[in-house]
Design a protein that fits this description.
By secondary structure, the chain is an alpha/beta fold. It is built from 5 helices and 5 strands, in the order E-H-E-H-E-H-E-H-E-H. It binds magnesium ion. This is Response regulator receiver protein. It holds the Pfam family Response_reg.
Length: 124
């Protein structure tokens, strides 16, 4: 079980991800924009699922803030994106994202990547 912060501006996707994670015994925090996400980082989640395309503050903006604070910089982040474009993968590599989920995704795919990334951060 992990404490997972899910950041997604699409309410349907946010609720879907929340249900999938809760059914799998995770403790879920949800944010529908970047500002709310930064506030919820104070709860020290073990993992962040971060939508990239959001109005106002993008997921990349949120990631920059997470990586710039000592207390948060080692938190694993999985980018949630509809854009499987090469440009986004390159940006993610540069910004040290820990994984990708491309929308639309299968439940199994989501859980697999979460387990993989949590497994790579055993002290989290
Ligand atoms: Mg979005």
């Amino acid at each position: 079980m992990a404490k997972i912060l899910v950041v997604e501006d699409n309410e349907d996707i946010l609720n879907l991800v929340k249900i999938i994670l809760e059914v799998n015994n995770h403790d879920v925090l949800t944010a529908s924009d970047g500002h709310e996400a930064i506030k919820l980082m104070e709860n020290k989640p073990d993992l962040v699922l971060l939508d990239i395309m959001m109005p106002g503050m993008s997921g990349w903006d949120v990631l920059d803030i997470i990586r710039s604070r000592d207390k948060w910089k080692n938190t694993p982040v999985i980018a949630l994106t509809a854009l499987a474009q090469k440009k986004d993968i390159e940006t993610g590599v540069k910004k040290h994202v820990d994984g990708y989920i491309v929308k639309p995704f299968e439940k199994k795919e989501l859980l697999n990547i979460i387990n993989k990334v949590l497994g790579e951060h055993p002290n989290k």
